[in-house]
């Protein structure tokens, strides 16, 4: 009875991962496991700041360890394309404190 | 097991999940698992101006280990039922 919540319906979709240190990484979900370890392809990090628009850093093929993951969000590509990231100003996300 | 069963009964209700990084996300409870990982639909961040990081996300998976609070609808809490379930769990060990 150890069938956890699957991320199966998100495989091959573009997802937005929020990590425990407050980073936002966007990429295509290629694989996952019960510990929520994740394989992300074509990934890039979105760096938010209050002084300039969102910076996008290309990362490539990544494995993110499950114990460092807060949120896995399903990205709506249409909506995301309509966003002008160069205009977004925001404080970086806070790190998780247990 | 108790909270797993309790959350399964709340599927379909609106909840607000507050995380340990102070982010608060409102949405419809879609599903929950044995680790109390939570899947929410129709998500919106509570303070969207402060946290625009999830503007294009409608559904999300929240890892149980990072949840601080789950804010529930008041009529979603049957206190008597929870009391009984708690007593049974305490006895059963």
TrEMBL record, chain A:
Annotated localization: Nucleus
GO biological process, one term: mRNA splicing, via spliceosome
Gene Ontology molecular functions: mRNA binding
GO cellular component: precatalytic spliceosome; U4/U6 x U5 tri-snRNP complex; U6 snRNP
Domain of life: Eukaryota
Cited Pfam families: LSM (PF01423)
InterPro entries named in the record: Lsm8, LSM_dom_sf, PTHR15588, Sm, Sm_dom_euk/arc
Keywords: mRNA processing, mRNA splicing, Nucleus, Ribonucleoprotein, RNA-binding, Spliceosome
Key word Ribonucleoprotein present: yes
Domain Sm stretches: 2-78
Main location: nucleus
Role this protein plays: Plays role in pre-mRNA splicing as component of the U4/U6-U5 tri-snRNP complex that is involved in spliceosome assembly, and as component of the precatalytic spliceosome (spliceosome B complex). The heptameric LSM2-8 complex binds specifically to the 3'-terminal U-tract of U6 snRNA.
Family: Belongs to the snRNP Sm proteins family.
Subunit structure: LSm subunits form a heteromer with a doughnut shape.
Protein's name according to its UniProt entry: U6 snRNA-associated Sm-like protein LSm8
UniProtKB/TrEMBL annotation, chain B:
GO cellular component, one term: catalytic step 2 spliceosome
All copies of domain Sm, residue ranges: 2-76
A Gene Ontology biological process term: mRNA splicing, via spliceosome
Chief location bin: nucleus
Subcellular location: Nucleus
UniProt xrefs under Pfam families: LSM
Keyword Transport in annotation: no
GO molecular function terms noted in the UniProt entry: RNA binding
PROSITE patterns, sorted: SM
Alphabetically ordered keywords of this record: mRNA processing, mRNA splicing, Nucleus, Ribonucleoprotein, RNA-binding, Spliceosome
InterPro entries named in the record: LSM_dom_sf (IPR010920), Sm (IPR047575), Sm_dom_euk/arc (IPR001163), U6_snRNA_Lsm2 (IPR016654)
Keyword presence, Nucleus: yes
Biological role: Component of LSM protein complexes, which are involved in RNA processing.
Family: Belongs to the snRNP Sm proteins family.
Protein name as annotated: Sm-like protein LSM2
Organism: Olea europaea subsp. europaea
